[in-house]
Every structure is written in C-alpha cells, then in structure tokens.
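Worked Example 4.2. Consider the chain below.
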Amino acid sequence: MKMINTHKYFTMNLTLKNNPLFSDVISGLFILLFSYAAISKLSDFQRFQVELGKSPLLAPFVNWIIWLIPTFEILIAVFLVVKKLQLAALYAAFSLMVIFTAYIITILNFSEYIPCSCGGLLQHMSWQQHLIFNLVFIGLGCLGVLFYPYQKRTIAIEGEAENLKQSRH
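Applying the procedure from the previous section yields the following structure tokens:
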C-alpha cells in the first residue's frame, strides 16, 4: 500500500491558493481567448450573423445574440484585468464556457446542420476538437476560481459588500 505524503499535497495546495500568479495566468488565457473571439466575430460580422442565423437553436434570437456574445466576451476580458472584479470575471468566464460547451453538445446531438459561428483559428477546428478545447477552458476556469488567492477573494467580497452598502444609502 502506497502512502500519500499529505504534507507535500497540502503545501502544494496552499501554495497555489496563495499564489496570485496562478489565477493571473488563467485570467490572461481567458483575456486572450475572449478578446480574440470577440474581435474575430466583429471583424467578420456578416459571416457571424449568417452562421448564427442558421443555428436551429439560436435563429429566433439572432438579432440580439449577435451583439450579446461579443459584448460579454469583451466585458469579461476587461473585468479580468481589474483586480477587484477578477474573481467575478473568472466565474463569468467559466459560466460562458459552460454555456458554449452545452450549445456544442446540443448541436452535435440534436441538429442535422451544424453551423460554425466561431471566427479566426477556432473555425478551423472540428467540432470534437472545439469541444475538447472548451472542456480545457472549463477546467482552467474551475481551477482559477478554486485556487483564487484567499486574501484577494476576501478583498473582492468585502469590496462588493461596501459597494452594496453604499448603493443602499
């Protein structure tokens, strides 16, 4: 029976939790991803609109989704830069990736036509590669939230509490 060195595990776990570099690197990856995705969509906006309009799930809502998706991507990228908003933005990035992944899974399983509204390099991925790519970013988002430094998390929560108190007065 192999013994697990719990001291080493807890030391690594605490090091990741107290190391802001880990969450900053993950935030940086999301900033690159969402900035690139939003710019790609907006730079070839007509193709993005046409492809999204072909989606059996999104076609009825295409007129507002074509603006909503790039806007959310840009806002999340900007919020990830602001330290007071970074934790909330990591939650938002994780959530958006879960939504995108659920959409891919739904389209792959229930649609005859599979539209691709991604831009740039992402449009050259197969749907299976795209799914794996998204799952990797979901994992990164989860790790970014779980290992967000405790001290920074406390500051972010206290800052939000102060903002809430001020808005009530």
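The two ends are 61 Å apart (CA to CA). The chain has a mean pLDDT of 82. Compare this with Example 4.1 before moving on.
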